[in-house]
Design a protein that fits this description.
This protein is mainly alpha-helical. The protein is about 55% helix and about 5% strand.
Length: about 290
């Protein structure tokens, strides 16, 4: 018996059928489902409903069975060929450059210097202070009101001030609030400088909206323990506005600073300062060692 070779079988690819046979449409399954529903519904209503459901279920079962026996009821459907082309609207992904002696690239590839975080924190602290003082003037009638509330976080004497004393100037409270606000702002700015390179797309959304919302939600839950006086007098609308202002200003200042490649993406010889051929530029003959 002659057989076809593998090449001949691959060349004789069967043509796609122009017509196919599918099951003919029928309403018997719907009638069976309706009968089953009435059969169980009669258990909580009346016997006549169950009897009707039983009759419909029996009729649906017999009718559905006769759709396949003794001969299956089918109909012929014409196959309409369709030219399918797979396309995508996604953006092209830029490949990260990897050094020859690396297995993969470390993320983030570029980061910001520490000075960028310090500058962003100081700029954000100014924006936050402006909104906080505006709240004190417009809502409380005194620019010293938010300053005394902030000092009460760590300064016990500020937490003991009466309602009238919160609206007056106190040098010790002002100094503590000034230092506290500056230190915390610088630390948050450093955090922004470390986080924003990990989110290269829309970093201001993270720094100006997401991070302030998370930070405010955390403070809302624990502020009663940290500063009961501030928790009882804080205006959360103005507080959120000042946090968003800090995040936007600090984020803008950080992302506008020049970035540099992270040390993880350089060879070990360069990170360790070892002179190796091909990894460090050669020195001139007149240079001092």
């Amino acid at each position: 018996m002659a057989t076809l070779s593998a090449t001949e079988r691959s060349n004789e690819s069967p043509r796609a059928p122009r017509e196919i046979e599918v099951s003919a449409p029928t309403a018997w399954p719907f009638l069976l489902a309706l009968g089953a529903a009435l059969l169980f519904a009669g258990l909580v209503t009346s016997t006549s409903v169950s009897c009707l459901g039983a009759l419909l279920s029996l009729a649906g079962s017999v009718g559905w069975f006769r759709e396949v026996f003794p001969r299956e009821h089918e109909e012929v459907v014409t196959v309409v060929p369709e030219d399918i082309r797979v396309t995508t609207t996604r953006r092209v992904v830029e490949r990260l450059s990897v050094l020859p002696d690396q297995v993969r690239a470390w993320l983030p590839v570029h980061t910001y210097p520490i000075s960028a975080g310090v500058k962003g924190g100081l700029a954000g602290s100014i924006a936050m202070a402006v909104l906080a003082c505006a709240y004190g003037v417009l809502k409380a009638g005194s620019i010293w009101y938010p300053i005394n509330l902030l000092a009460a976080v760590f300064y016990r004497e500020s937490s003991r001030l009466g309602p009238a004393q919160l609206y007056s100037f106190h040098a010790d409270a002002f100094a503590i609030a000034f230092v506290l606000h500056g230190v915390v702002s610088i630390f948050v700015g450093l955090l922004y400088g470390a986080m924003l390179p990990m989110f290269p797309r829309r970093p201001i959304v993270l720094g100006g909206l997401i991070a302030p919302a998370l930070w405010s939600g955390l403070l809302y839950t624990i502020l009663g323990l940290l500063n009961p006086l501030l928790a009882s007098r804080i205006d959360w609308v103005w507080f959120m506005a000042s946090q968003v202002a800090f995040g936007i200003v600090a984020g803008l200042v950080v992302v506008r600073q020049p970035s540099f490649p992270t040390r993880e993406n350089t060879s070990f010889a360069l990170r360790a300062g070892i002179e190796a051929p091909g990894t460090m530029p050669p020195r001139e003959s007149g240079e001092n060692h």
